[in-house]
Amino acid sequence: MEKWHLMTIVVLIGLTVRWTVSLNSYSGAGKPPMFGDYEAQRHWQEITFNLPIKQWYFNSSDNNLQYWGLDYPPLTAYHSLLCAYVAKFINPDWIALHTSRGYESQAHKLFMRTTVLIADLLIYIPAVVLYCCCLKEISTKKKVANALCILLYPGLILIDYGHFQYNSVSLGFALWGVLGVSCDWDLLGSLAFCLAINYKQMELYHSLPFFCFLLGKCFKKGLKGKGFVLLIKLACTVVASFILCWLPFCTEREQTLQVLRRLFPVDRGLFEDKVANIWCSFSIFLKIKEILPHHFQIIIRYCYQENKCFIFIRFFSFCFTFLSLLPACVKLTLQPSSKGFRFTLVSCALSFFLFSFQVHEKSILLVSLPVCLVLSEIPFMSTWFLLVSTFSMLPLLLKDELLMPLVVTTIAFFIACATSFSIFEKTSEEELQLKSFSLSVRKYLPCFTFLSRIIQYLFLISVITMVLLTLITVTLDPPQKLPDLFSVLVCFVSCLHFLFFLVYFNIIIMWDSKSGRNQKKIN
Amino acid sequence: MAALGIAMGGGNWFSALALGVTLLKCLLIPTYHSTDFEVHRNWLAITHSLPVSQWYYEATSEWTLDYPPFFAWFEYALSHVAKYFDQEMLNVRNLNYSSSRTLLFQRFSVIFTDALFVYAVHECCKCIDGKKAGKELTEKPKFILSVLLLWNFGLLIVDHIHFQYNGFLFGLMLLSIARLFQKRHMEGAFLFAVLLHFKHIYLYVAPAYGVYLLRSYCFTANKPDGSIRWNSFSFVRVISLGLIVFLVSALSLGPFLALNQLPQVLSRLFPFKRGLCHAYWAPNFWALYNALDKVLSIIGLELKLLDPNKIPKASMTSGLVQQFQHTVLPSVTPLATLICTLIAMLPSIFCLWFKPQGPRGFLRCLILCALSSFLFGWHVHEKAILLAVLPMSLLSVGKAGDASIFLILTTTGHYSLFPLLFTAPELPTKILLMLLFTTYSISSLKTLFRKEKPLFNWLETFYLLGLGPLEVFCEFVFPFTSWKLKYPFIPLLLTSVYCAAGITYAWFKLYVSVLSDPPSSKTKKQ
C-alpha cells in the first residue's frame, strides 16, 4: 500500500489513545469484597495457574465459583494461564492461590493493562487494518480514514482499557472470521470464528449470519457438486477446531457438561443490572421481573413447578429473537453477498441484544463491531449508532469513574467520523441506502418525501437528548425514592434508539437487491 | 491526525487538528507530573496569598519564584480561578498538596492557555509560504506545518505530562515571529518584550531580534548590492522601538524597582550557583566535554598517568551530581560558557547584519542563537531544545536542506527528552507519541520534497536508526544487567552523549548552510 505511513500513524494514534485511557481507573478498583472485572481476570489467572485443568470449572475449596468463577469458554482460560505464567515470572504474589485475592498495585495494574494492549495489538488491530485495506471501491485515503474511525471507537476502548476486559480478542477473532469469509478463504474464516466463540460464548450472537452466509455459499455452488465438498470441509474445520479447544474437557462427560453449565447459566435472571434492551426498558412500565412471573405462576401453576416459569420467559424471548432475525437470515441464505453478510451481522446481533435472555450492557459491543464494518457504506447512521452504543454504557462507565475518557474519546471519535466522512453531507436517501425503500413506499404514499429530513431531525434530537442526559446524570443526584432513575432513563432512551436501528438495518437488508435490480434496469 | 483532515475541504482542517490535539491533552491528565507541578502550585499560593512585596522573598517552599514578574502576575490571575476549584491549593504552607481538583485545575490551565499557541500557529501558517506542492490537503506545506507545531512531541510531553506552561509562551514567540514576517515589526517587538518578562530563557534569542530590528527595520533602505545605507537610518523607528521595550520593562520591573527589590528579583532570576550541567546532562557541547573528560581519566588511570587518590570521588561514581569536577580537562566557569556562547552566536549575528535576507534570514539567526546557547550555555535544561525545534519547524517546510536539518534536530532533541519521563506507565506513552510524531514528520517531509535529493545521507540515516537500539538498551536491557547498581548513570550518559552528537551536527550543518548561502538578491529588501 502506497500510504503505509498514514496507516502507521493511524495505528499509532489508536494505540496512544488506548494506552492513555488505560491510565484511568478500572472496574472495582479498591472496592472489596467482590471488586470487579479486573479482579475476575486476575482471579482466573490465579485459578488456571494453580489448579489442575480438571478443576477449573468445578466448585471446590480452592475454587469458589461464587467468587468470580470461570464462566468463559476454554480459550479464555488458556489465555489466562498464559498471562499467569508471565505474572509468575514478574511477581508470584500476583497469582498466589487464596492470598492474592483482591491484589491491587500500580505495577500489577500496569501488567494487566499491558496484557490487554498486547492482545489487542496481536489480534484486533491487524484485523482492522487488513479489513480496511481490503475494502473495495474507495480511495486509499478513505481506507485510512476508515481505519482511524474504527480504531477510535470509544465503546471498545473504554470497556477494554478502562473497565477492563479482553473483548478485543474475541471481537478480533470474529473480525478475522468476517475478513476470511468475505475474501473467500472460507476455512480460515470459519476457523477464526470458532476461536472467537471459544474465547467468549457471546460471539454466538454472530454465529447465525456466519452459518447462513456459508450455507448460502454452498447452495450457490450447488449442493451436489463443489458446494457439498465445501460444506464437508467447513463442517470438519468447525468440529476440529472445537475439539482442539475443548480437548482437555472432552475426556469425561461430566467435565463437558459442567463447562457448558458454567457458560450458559440457566438459573440467572432475564437481564442483569440495567441493560438497554427490550426487557429492561419494558420493565419500567410493567415491572416485568415481578409481574410477569407472577402471572405465569397463576397460569401454569398446575403444569410446572414454580421456578420453572423462567422457561416460559425464555421461550418468549427466544421467539422474539428468532422472529426478529429470521427475515434477514433467510435472505442471506438465499442471496449470499459480502455486503448482505455484514448488514445481517448487525441486525442479528442487535436482535439478540434487544430480545434475548440474560444480556449484559457490554454486549452492545458485539453489535458495534459489525456496525464499524459498514461505516464506510452508511457513515451517517453508523456514526450515530456507535455514539448511541457508547452512550448506553454510561451508567457502567460512570461507576468505573471513566467520565473524562468517555467524554474525550467520544468527542474525538465524533470529530474523526465527521471529518473523514463528512457525514452531514451524506444524509440523502441514497446515501442512507433508503432509496429503494422510499420508492416502494411512494407507490402507495406519493407524499413520502421527507424521510431524510426526518432522520436529520431525529439525529439532532437524539444527540441533544444524550448530551442532556449525560449532563443530568453527572451533575444531579437522583431522587431518593428512585435511585436508579437516571440509569434507567439512559437505558430506555438507548433502547428506543436500538429498536429504531433494528428497523432501519432490516429495511436496508430487505430492500437491498431490489435497488440492485433497479440500477440494472436504469443501466 | 493526518487522516482527520483527509476528507475535509478547505477551512476546518485546522480546527480539527487543534481540537484533536486538545483532546489528546485531556487524555494525558492522569499521567505522571514532575515537581514542576508543585512549583507552579506553590507560585499560585505565593502570588495569591502574599503582597507583591513578598513575592520574591518568600521561601517556605524550596521552589521559590524564579520567573520574571509577568509570569508571577499570570499565576496571580490563575489563582483567582483556582479558588473556585480548591481553596487549599492556595495555601503557601500546604507543601506538595495535590488533590484531584488541584490536578484538574492545573492541567486544564495549561490546556486552556495553549489556545494562544494554537492562534499563533494559525498566524504562522498564514505567513509561511512553503514549497508549492500537490493539490492534496495532506501534502500542503500549511497542513504539514500546523501538524508539526500543534502535535509537537516535545511540547506535549513537557507541558502536558511533565507539566510546564511552555505552550502559551511559545505561542507568544511564534506570534511575534509571525508579526515580523507580516512586517508588523512594532507588534513583533512588543510581543517579544512581553515574552521576555514572562520567562527570561528567551533572552538567548534576543540578539537575533535586536540585530534584525535594527538592521532591517531601523534602516529603511539598502544599497543595490545589499550592503547597508547608513543615511537611511530612521530615528523615529529606533525611538519607538526603545519606547516599547522600555514601557514593557517598566510595567514589569517598575513595581519592584519602586520597592527597591530589583537586586533580589535579579538574583532569583539568574542563580549562578548551580552547576555547569543540569542533574541530567542536556545533550550539548558540555556533555561531550564531560564524557571526554571521563574517558580521558579512565585511560589515564589505566596507563597510570593519573594518581587515583587525586581524582575527586564524585566524578567517578556518578554523572548525576550537580557539581561536576573535571579530572583531566580544565574545569569550566560560567564566564567561559558565556564567552563560548557569544562566540558561537557571533557569526550568525554578523550574517544577519551584513547579508540581510528578510524574515527567513532572521529566523535562521534566531534558531542559531537558540542552538548556540543550548550547546554552550551554563546549566542548560534539556527542555530548552524546544526553543530551537519549534522555530525550525517553520523553516522545514520551505527547503529540502532545512527539512533534513529539522528532522535530525527534532528527532534527537525529542529523544533527549525521554529521561524526563522515567515512570513505567509513561514509557509506552512517550514511545508511542515519539513514534507518532517522528513517523509523521519524516514521511510528510519526504513526500513534500520527494522530487529533490533524498533528505538523509547514509550516515544520518544510520545515526537516526541508532536511536532505536539505544532506547531498547537503556530502557529494556540495561535495567536487567548487573551494571544497574554499579553504574546507574550509564543510560543517561549514553543518551545525552548520543543526542549531543546529533544536535551539534545539526547546529553545524545549519551554520554551514547559513554562511554558504549566497546573499540572494531575490529576497525583498526591507
From TrEMBL, chain B:
Q: Does the keyword Glycosyltransferase apply?
A: yes
Segments crossing the lipid bilayer: 12-33, 104-122, 143-158, 188-214, 234-259, 335-355, 361-378, 385-411, 461-483, 489-508
Keywords assigned by UniProt, alphabetized:
Endoplasmic reticulum, Glycosyltransferase, Membrane, Signal, Transferase, Transmembrane, Transmembrane helix
What the entry lists under Pfam families is as follows: Alg6_Alg8
One GO cellular component from the entry?
endoplasmic reticulum membrane
Specify the domain of life of the species encoding this protein: Eukaryota
Question: According to Swiss-Prot or TrEMBL, what is its membrane topology?
Answer: Multi-pass membrane protein
Which EC number(s) does UniProt give? 2.4.1.-
Which residue positions does the secretion signal occupy? 1-18
In the record, biological process GO terms are: dolichol-linked oligosaccharide biosynthetic process; protein N-linked glycosylation via asparagine
One GO MF term: dolichyl pyrophosphate Glc1Man9GlcNAc2 alpha-1,3-glucosyltransferase activity
Pathway the protein contributes to:
Protein modification; protein glycosylation
Q: Where in the cell is it found?
A: Endoplasmic reticulum membrane
> Which family does the entry's similarity section mention?
Belongs to the ALG6/ALG8 glucosyltransferase family.
Q: What's the name of the protein? A: Alpha-1,3-glucosyltransferase
Q: Which organism is it from?
A: Panthera leo (Lion)
